[in-house]
Please model this.
Amino acid sequence: MIIKFNRVSKSYGKDNKALSDVSFDVEPGEMLFLTGHSGAGKTSILKLIMKIEDMSYGHATVNGYGLKELKNHQLPLYRQSVGMIFQDHRLLENRTILDNVALSLWIRGYGKEESHKQARVVLKQVGLEEKTHFYPDQLSSGQQQRVGIARAIVSKPDILLADEPTGNLDPDLSLELMEIFMKINATGTTVLIASHDLILIKRLRKRVLVLDSGQLIDDYRPES
Amino acid sequence: MNQITKHAPSHILKWYRGHIRALVEGFKMPLLTPYSSLFTVITLAICFYLPLVMWTLWQNFSEVEDSWRGQGSIAIFLKKGLDANELTVLQHDLLDRKLVTAVSVVDKDTIKANLNDDPQLNQVIDVISSHELPDQILVQPHPNATSEQLQTLARNLQLRQDIDYVSFDAEWFNQLKSLTQAFYYLMQASIVVFLVIILVFLSHSIGSEVALHKKEISLQKLLGATPGQIRRRFLYGGMYYGLLASLFAILMLRVTLWYLEKPIADLSYSFGQVIVLRTPYLLELLLFVVFATLISWLGARVSASNHIASL
Model:
């Protein structure tokens, strides 16, 4: 298992339970969706996996790391194995698209030339090879989201997390993005997408974890 | 874990590239906010300048003290009617003492000639001329002789029958010594105070820089950057501040010494001495620049670590 959640709970204060006894497993190379209404706990699961927040109870292992046992000095290396795409893109406005994507590689110690070369390859994959020297505010929301995807996949992580990646996009663009995710998944990367877009999820016929008020109420696996 | 290329960078290469990037980004840091950076550099320069100027003055006083220690002499005024044989015996007796390096006899005519040459004393020479002046022996003390030892020697010589009066004015020397010591303590205190000010001020400046880059730092953390990688650019930024501030402090020191040159020369001339203030040697200035840069690096490190951890 590349991701294993065992009775994981997350509370904010005494009365606010974001997750309650959530258990699920994910096989390496799998692509699945987390869905549910706003506040169902989708983003909380992603934040726990990224170790942005700590779980309150339970046990979880991701890519061989026990999240509770993970030490501060291990965190950077762990995070390098997990790519994340944010709903708000989180691009740096004062850097070009190329530099935004190459940032992941600079952190891993690659030189400027190698980083730019790899970033160009990935930007081509997401259809932005003509925009490498643009700045984020010169791109549309959909294009910015693609830059976010390019930045997350350029370092070829084992697991790719996406938090509402199609949140602000029209159906056609959303489908385009999902096709990109499927291509990434086809290379062996485990992809976990939090989305409330049920129509899109149904079209893709992938495994779906359904959350409601912090509880996992369904683990739907489509028949192949 | 998936591999981006066949040749993942080694730890050394990663470390080297990280530092080169941080070096460039740290250099750009003051340029991105030129006015606040200038304010930071000037404030740091003043904090470095004050201990530096005190250290320089202390060094100068200390060197003057050292040079005057060897130059001080005891003047022995002989009893009237002393014959040549008695004078020779006295000279030999003085030379046998460990505290004495040399003795020289100055006859009354030479003393009169010296007084005539002195612009302040030549007006009273006529009054002195009406009284007969005694012969004099000038004793050159050993360079390592302390003021206390020389005072004891002067008191013992005063008891001799062949000596009329022994003159050894140690007061000026003690005053200079006290002044030098006071400067030394003042310099030490000022170094501690200004170091604290530098650390507090740098903490504030680097804290502001970290806050400016909050979004980028949060993103770097999520992308797997280590605290060291994130911190590095701020450390180099702090070092640049320190380097520029130390160079600015040296410039201010040179201007100060140039400004003080004439008043100090006039003051020392009035005491019959010639003192020329010297600027620190090149090696001393280099050490100062290295010290200032390291202190700024240290301040930036403490500040950046705390601020980044709190994000």
